[in-house]
Design brief:
The protein contains eleven helices and nine strands. With 270 residues, the chain is α/β, with parallel strands linked by helices. α5 packs across α6 and α9 packs antiparallel against α10. The protein is globular and about 55 Å long. The two termini are 28 Å apart.
């Protein structure tokens, strides 16, 4: 597919989706929204992809919504999601909304945050499973300083990542948060020098792709995102059922065999 506002590529079983408007700090557009969703679905469906990395071109991840678009916003057009994937009864409805679809992608999605991450850019970073940031990255929710609110499920997702008090701080003040503070509050998983960000992120992604069962990753990811809607008993019963199913898989047999034989694994995802 020909993309206008993103780049897409696959190497070493890792798909990279790059927001590609560097002259605008990758400011978010309707075209970018559509292309990111389609690229995520393409990576999810590709058996040659085991991990997905989302990043930005140039010196930033995403500076938020394009201000030229906001100045002339059409609320009616915002409601048009005809290009979205049809409702899937096998996916949790909570993770089929306009932006909250990342948890339904059955592969790890890593946000590689190379610079400013604001507004809708922060929303997308938070819906990723893991966040690796450059030490020069800066974060802000932005919305309250634009007369807006906690949009796109941010009021639900952010407290689950950084806690209630930190979430209120970030949402009410929309202040700028530097990378070390972001890591301290759990907003990002890892902070590395800017020049080492790509190497660190892809080393982690390749380790997952090479040494971890893709079937296990898909099930574990689903378990994590179902847990907020379950009791402890429901979670345990579901996990026990998944464990029994795992015993019948090729990946379980391979997981034991490669350990005993002291060789690299050859997982198939089956």
């Amino acid at each position: 597919m020909d993309y206008q506002h993103i780049l897409y590529g696959v190497e070493h079983r890792v798909a990279t989706i790059t927001l590609n408007r560097p002259e605008r700090l990758n400011a978010w557009t309707a075209t970018m929204e559509r292309e990111v969703r389609l690229a995520m679905e393409a990576a999810a469906a590709d058996e040659g992809v085991r991990v997905i990395v989302l990043t930005g071109a140039g010196r930033g991840f995403c500076a938020g919504a394009d201000m030229n678009v906001l100045q002339n916003i059409d609320a009616g057009a915002m409601r048009d999601d005809s290009w979205n994937r049809p409702f899937d009864m096998n996916r949790r409805p909570d993770y089929q909304t306009r932006y909250a679809f990342y948890p339904a992608i059955p592969k790890p999605v890593i946000a590689m945050l190379n610079g400013p991450t604001a507004g809708i850019g922060l929303v997308h970073a938070l819906y990723c499973d893991l966040r690796f940031a450059a030490d020069t990255a800066v974060f802000t929710t932005s919305f309250s300083r634009r007369g807006l609110v906690a949009e796109h499920g941010l009021g639900w997702m952010l407290p689950r990542i950084v806690g209630h008090a930190n979430a209120l701080d970030l949402l009410l003040s929309a202040r700028k948060v530097l990378a070390p503070e972001a890591q301290a509050m759990g907003l990002v998983n890892k902070v590395v020098p800017a020049g080492e960000l790509s190497g660190a992120t892809y080393a982690y992604a390749r380790d997952l792709a090479d040494n971890v069962s893709p079937r296990s990753m898909a099930v574990i990811k689903r378990q994590q995102y179902e847990a907020p809607f379950q009791t402890l008993a429901e979670n345990t019963i579901s996990a026990n059922a998944e464990m029994l199913r795992s015993f019948d898989t090729e990946d379980f047999r391979e997981g034991v065999a490669h350990f005993v034989e002291k060789r690299p694994p050859k997982f198939t995802g089956r």
